[in-house]
Design brief:
This protein is an all-alpha fold. The chain has helices spanning about 5-35, 40-45, 50-55, 65-75, 80-95.
Length: about 100
Amino acid sequence: MSTSLASSISNCAAARRDTSARHFGENIRIARSNDGRPLEELAPKAGLTVEEWEAIESGQLPERWEQVLLLGMVLRIGPKWMKHLRKLCESATRQEPHR
C-alpha cells in the first residue's frame, strides 16, 4: 500500500473517531437539556467537575466506561439510548488495523 493511501485511510479513520466523539457529546448535552437540572448539580453526581462535563459535551470522551455509565444514570438515560452511546464510544475509540 502506498504511503499516501495509508495516510488517507488513517486520516479518514481519525475523522470518523472525532465525529463519533462529537456526536457522543451532543447526545449528552441534549440529555442534560431535557433533564432540566443545572450542570452544577449533575456533574458531581457523575463524579465529574463542571469543566470535565463540558469537555465531554464538546467531544472529549470519558476516560473510563464507568464514567459513561454514571452519566447515563445521572441523566436517567434509558437502555436504548445507552446502547447508542456505547456504539458511539466504541466507534470513537476503535483503532484501525495496521497494514
